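The instructor's notes for this session suggest beginning with a concrete chain rather than abstract definitions. Hand out the sequence below and ask the class to guess, before any prediction is shown, which regions might be ordered.
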Amino acid sequence: MIIVRCWLEHLFNCAFECAYFDKGVFNPEMINILFDNNKTIPLKFNIEEACFWANDDTFHLEFYFEHLSISKSFSINLDSVDITEEDLEILFFMSVNEGDKFPQIYFCNSKLTWVYDFILDVSI
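After discussion, reveal the predicted structure:
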C-alpha cells in the first residue's frame, strides 16, 4: 500500500496533456484511505483534456468530479451505458453544481435522443 500511495502522490504532482479513461478508474474510497483524508496533498490528477468512455462497470462520476483538475475540456461518451433518467439527473446536476471545475464539458450519446431532450428541458 505504501508503494501505491507513493506512485499516486507522484502522479498527483504531474501534469498531463491528455488522459483517456476507458476500462477502469481509480477507486475514490481507496484514495481517501491511502491518504487518510490528508488535506496537505492535493488528491487531483492535473489534466489539460480528459476523455471518458463510460460503460456500466466504470460509470463512477464521483471520481471524475472529485479527483480530476481539468484545465481545458472533459468529454464523456455515454454510448456504452444503459443510462437511466436517475443517472442522467445525477450527471446533469453534478455538471451544473460542480461544472465550474471544468471549463468545457462535452456529452456524447448518439443512441439516446431523450438525453438531449432532458438536458434542454432542465436547462430551459
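Then share the key points. The first strand starts at residue 15 and ends at 21. The CA atoms of residues 4 and 72 lie 28 Å apart.
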